[in-house]
Amino acid sequence: MARPNLEDPDELKAYRKELRKVGQPLSLTGMVLMFVGLVLLGANKFGWLNYHVDGPDFTAFGILVAGWGFLVWALFKRNIHHRNRMAEPSA
Known about the structure:
mainly alpha
């Protein structure tokens, strides 16, 4: 692929769409993990689903950290893709 011409509005729109798709599965995984972690924290705090742990809930916090890790991984993957595309010669 050739370097996109970011001065052309149509190419810019297509390139933004391409960048959004690069880390999309990782971002979605991160968001789902963060949601599960928040539900577990709420279940611990309010006693939902008969789930209660005395003290801090390290499982829920671990799932939240994993979700953030996936989001950061998606960000790095997208930035690397952008850097590689901009390093390509122009068409």
